[in-house]
Design a protein that fits this description.
- The structure is a single chain.
- It is globular and about 55 Å long.
- It has one domain.
- The protein is mainly α.
- It has 10 helices and no strands.
- 41% of the residues are buried.
- The termini are far apart.
Length: 209
């Protein structure tokens, strides 16, 4: 009965998740610099971050936040600040020698929990994701759709997001790919740092609130 609605949700989500943004930049950096395990945990964190957006959309909290300029701008500044923090850390990262012969193990210094937290917070604090999910649950999904079915959509969205970024982590943690980035030396960290800072600044000055 809800297959057409589900397919619409899946298609809209596919177009959104495939668009490069903070989640993509963070997963790529973790995968290239720290290996597949850390990149995969970061991807899982991003996927679980979707549950934050689904939860407040179902509870109606997101609508309240989106209609409050103060709350939404506070949310936006927290997200921008976190991206700037990640970017600054990347710019200050020490030069490293990537072990491209080992695609599975991460370099010392980043635990699975830390990698998961980076992905979770990056996605969970993204106010553009807030607007996306509010639109999804108010425009695409009918208010007559049972709450349990909507929750099922949320589980799918989280799983699909995690799978997409697990694929990204797998691709960018392959030996040849990491070797290519390794030839860039310290410039890869600087490049990703600049990208994250750029995303943070763009978010901070945007008029989405």
């Amino acid at each position: 009965m809800y297959w057409i609605e589900f397919m619409t949700v899946a298609l809209v989500h596919l177009l959104a998740v495939a668009s490069p943004g903070p989640d993509f930049a963070v997963v790529v950096r973790e995968s290239v610099t720290q290996g597949r395990r850390v990149g995969s945990w970061t991807a899982l964190g991003v996927g679980c971050g979707i549950f934050v957006h689904v939860a407040y959309s179902l509870l109606g909290i997101g609508l309240i936040v989106s209609q409050s300029i103060v709350l939404f701008n506070l949310f936006k500044w927290l997200a921008a600040g976190y991206l700037l923090y990640l970017g600054w850390r990347a710019l200050r990262a020490r030069p490293m020698n990537l072990d491209v012969t080992d695609e599975t193990h991460a370099r010392a210094g980043r635990s699975a929990w830390q990698a998961f937290a980076v992905g979770f917070v990056t996605n969970g604090l993204n106010p553009k994701a807030t607007l996306f999910f509010l639109s999804l649950f108010t425009v695409v999904i009918s208010p007559d759709t049972p709450l349990l079915v909507q929750a099922g959509y949320g589980v799918y969205l989280a799983g699909a997001t995690a799978l997409w970024f697990l694929l990204v982590a797998w691709l960018f943690s392959r030996g040849r790919v990491r070797a290519g980035f390794a030839r860039m030396g310290h410039w890869f960290d600087r490049l990703t740092g600049a990208v994250l800072i750029g995303l943070g600044v763009r978010l901070a000055v945007s008029e989405i609130g």
